[in-house]
């Protein structure tokens, strides 16, 4: 609770930095527009204005600075413009409308969740295999670790296209990427978690003459819960990033990624920025959701970290 | 027939690994490398045989041998792409982002108030889809490597920032008291105690950032690039249905990613040799 004030301070510092950046970034465009609207601009030719930096031009034309905050097609929109656009597209539209960000959000969220579910389940299964089979541990685990250093996300759009050419379309191709991205963090985290009981705890179970499966359900699985939640939080945000990147350059018609690209290509920067922030909010909500589940579960299991 | 070979090879590889893993020598360093290597070779052989056996269309999945051929034939072009994307784009951005994050962390560290604000906000920002800003940066800075470096710098900034700030806090009251009894001021304490203590954390952030840097540089090229670069080559080779070239770039990206990560791990080992996790 006591960190609310510092957090708000940091956020307002970032916002302030953003607001300060708006006039220099947009000044050239605004000055051109102002000249067309017969306002006084110094210097008065576009060529002469190119000689100045954005900040220099803003200082010379202080009377134009308010205009930079309300410019229609800004290079850098101001915070209130983005907020307004988000309000219009999230609350102001029917959620079935193609202009509603809620609709696009669902298009992105559905494959993310499906893929996350697949990736997490497979990841847990592989982790159990690795913990109980020495051969799998020795042969698969090094590759699971190496695969984390490979920029596989860069291939997401290509995987979509290949699957599309094989006739697989819709939800599934994006889910595969989301599944892949959440898979390895879960494997690595769960292997760590399932191995976290120390020798004394394992010995205790042996003195109870517990079977292997009893040891798994009563000791290893519960002990891995904190590790599982840490991996789930990494996995869900990786899945969301994967789905968005998969939508970006593949000509997808709906979804956050598609909105970002449409705004970029048709000169509607506000659309891109609104999609970007909506995606950020979605990621935050998903990670936050898992944090809450984590806190409740660990508390009920008596493992809460104070 | 070929499929039977594939099954036989898979069984043989697995049998060999079972023997090695259960054998007396299984903790020997060479065997530790040998087992995953055998697994990898088995997968590649089975892949090759299955692609040939089922006559898989190379547009869907090329055989490893044709990818290998591409790697050999297209060496100069792959090198040019590597230079453009990794050296110019990813490395520049990585260094800029790293230095900026480090600077901000050291400055913020002077105030406990700021630290408490930066940790949650930075952790939150690190989980966001920052790659999505790539089209915006390409628009601002043009399609050459500068825009890629900017995307990479923003992507690596937050993980390194959060880890550095957390690391600088990781000294015990007793250690700080000891420095005070020596009469050490802020700077000596920073350089002799707190920075060394923060090293394991900083390297953790740097290692997370290596993969992010490559992803950022490659993905940003999908939105505009000169006619060279790994992202450019991946997307154009796709247009030409030259999937073996795409896979060759993937191999290069994978090697670059592992090498980058490996290099960071090596530097970490040299610099934090005193830390329990390295001994």
Basic shape of chain A: elongated
Low-confidence stretches of chain A: none
Kindly state the percentage of residues in helix of chain B. over 70%
Number of helical segments with 4 or more residues of chain A: 14
Report the order of strands and helices of chain B. Answer: HHHHHHHHHHH
The separation of the N and C termini of chain A measures 14 Å
CA-CA gap between termini of chain B: 51 Å
Indicate the CATH topology of the largest domain in chain A.
MetI-like fold
The CATH class of the largest domain in chain A is: Mainly Alpha
Individual helix count of chain B: 11
Keywords (chain A): Cell membrane, Membrane, Transmembrane, Transmembrane helix, Transport
InterPro entries (chain A): MetI-like, MetI-like_sf
Subcellular location (chain A): Cell membrane
Protein name (chain A): NitT/TauT family transport system permease protein
Layout of helices and strands:
The complex is a heterodimer of chains A (about 300) and B (about 280).
Chain A: H1 4-36, H2 46-50, H3 54-60, H4 65-68, H5 79-90, H6 101-132, H7 134-147, H8 156-165, H9 171-194, H10 199-207, H11 212-223, H12 225-247, H13 256-265, H14 269-300
Helix pairs in contact in A: 1-3, 5-14, 6-7, 6-9, 6-12, 8-12, 9-12, 12-14, 13-14
Chain B: H1 2-22, H2 29-53, H3 64-73, H4 75-109, H5 112-126, H6 134-141, H7 145-168, H8 173-181, H9 186-221, H10 230-239, H11 243-271
Helix pairs in contact in B: 1-2, 3-11, 4-7, 4-9, 5-7, 6-7, 7-9, 9-11, 10-11
Descriptive account of the structure:
The complex is a heterodimer of chains A (about 300) and B (about 280). With about 300 residues, chain A is mainly alpha-helical. Chain A has 14 helices and no strands. Chain A has helices at about 5-35, 45-50, 55-60, 65-70, 80-90, 100-130, 135-145, 155-165, 170-195, 200-205, 210-225, 225-245, 255-265, 270-300. Chains A and B meet through helix 1, helix 7, helix 8, helix 12 and helix 13 of A and helix 1, helix 2, helix 5, helix 6 and helix 9 of B. Chain A: It is a multi-pass membrane protein. Chain A: This is NitT/TauT family transport system permease protein. Chain A: Keywords: Cell membrane, Membrane, Transmembrane, Transmembrane helix, Transport.
